[in-house]
Amino acid sequence: MEKDLQISTLIEEGSAFEGRLSFSGTAKISGQFKGEIYTKDHIVITDTAHVQAEIEAGYVTIMGKLEGNVVATKKVIMMPPAIFRGTVTTPSLKIDEGVVFEGASYVPKA
């Protein structure tokens, strides 16, 4: 994750949120989240996060635990110690060594 990333939305470690999250810019989730996430921009799920969600975004970076379906219009990156269970639909998927991936991935037809 880039050091100079401008965070516009934050769910910090130790906090929990349930519902529908919609934002512009970059959101960082370090706590617990359950629900739906919608953005044309970037969502970062840190290594302390536990997320159960349906996600529609431009870019998704996963380092924590995510259960659900992800539709990303640009790119999904998974880095250890990520644990992902669900379905990913994106034109660009990067899964680093050490990531647990249980599910399916789809590349949409251009």
Strand content: over 45%
Helix content: under 10%
Overall pLDDT: 93
Low-confidence stretches: none
Shape: globular
Largest sheet: 10 strands, parallel
What is the domain tally?
1
Order of helices and strands, N to C?
A: EEEEEEEEEE
Q: State the secondary-structure class.
A: mainly beta
Alpha-carbon distance between the two ends: 28 Å
- The beta-strand count equals 10
Tally of contiguous helical segments: 0
What report would you give on this structure?
The chain has strands spanning 7-11, 16-22, 26-29, 32-38, 42-45, 50-62, 65-78, 83-89, 93-95, 100-106. The chain has 110 residues and is mainly beta. It has one domain (7-88). Strands 1, 2, 3, 4, 5, 6, 7, 8, 9 and 10 form a 10-stranded parallel sheet that branches. The N and C termini lie far apart (28 Å). 31% of the residues are buried. The model has no long low-confidence stretch (mean pLDDT 93).
Salient structural properties:
110 residues, mainly beta, ten-stranded parallel sheet, 10 strands
Compact description:
This protein is an all-beta fold.
List the helices and strands and how they pair.
Elements: E1 7-11, E2 16-22, E3 26-29, E4 32-38, E5 42-45, E6 50-62, E7 65-78, E8 83-89, E9 93-95, E10 100-106
Parallel strand pairs: 1-3, 2-4, 3-5, 4-6, 5-6, 6-7, 7-8, 7-9, 8-10
